[in-house]
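User: Show me a protein chain along with its predicted structure.
Assistant: Here is one chain, sequence first, then structure tokens.
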Amino acid sequence: MTQPTLYPQHTALSLAASGVPVLPLRRGKVPFGNCTTCADNACGGRPNMKTPGPCQCPGVCHAWAAATTDPAVIVSPSWETAWRRAVSVGYHPGGAGLTVVDLDDADAVAWARTALPATRTVPTTRGEHWIYRGTMTSRNAVRPGVDIKSSMSYARYLGPCTGTMVDLPDAVRALAVKEPSPARPEPQTVTMPSGPERGECPHRTPAYLERGIAMAEQRITEASSAVHATVYRTFLAVLSTHGRCGCLTDAHVARLFTAAQSKGERPRHCLEAWTNARTTLGL
């Protein structure tokens, strides 16, 4: 990706040449609205949208689905009109094989630096974009100040990045997983075993594991809303990192369950969330 200029169309052409689907963004960092023909998707939508049927409109309609790498479209008369009104360039991360973790404030950035692997980053007005290689389902508000932009979404191009891009980790994928509707067993106090194996984690240090458990406890206890969903996503993140290597002990699991119960979760709720997380990850 290249340095943006005063001419968004020039930047868009450069990005498109590198395989990044682009679209113009108007004031407010949002796409242009649909034309009258495409209003309410009456046209059937673009071919790469979920709605059936191709869209023959030459304009910049359908938000992220309008993103293109075709220079002929980018310089077409209808797009030229949009570029003259555009204030920035947007792109479709999923179309470029990328996922953007949008960290909206300093607290979210601080969380990412301890919870996620380092990758290519670029500063935003209030936070940072962390860019990973790979695609996934987009989802907003996966935790305070954190959005995920990948498939069927758009991100604003902010200029050259720093760092080395790495593959999309399970810890990011886990953030967007919606908890399945749990079964409703009778209330009971259960000690959940951590797994069939025990021992030192072969790819992380004990200090890393301890820090991860402590952060998971903090994330649960600081939840001010959607406690059950937060508990599930936290369990999922811990298991995605350590669930296959046998480093989790009953003591670690008990700490997570205790943190959840301090927020009002009953033992059976903890068990359901833990079981659902293990099932999701195939453990």
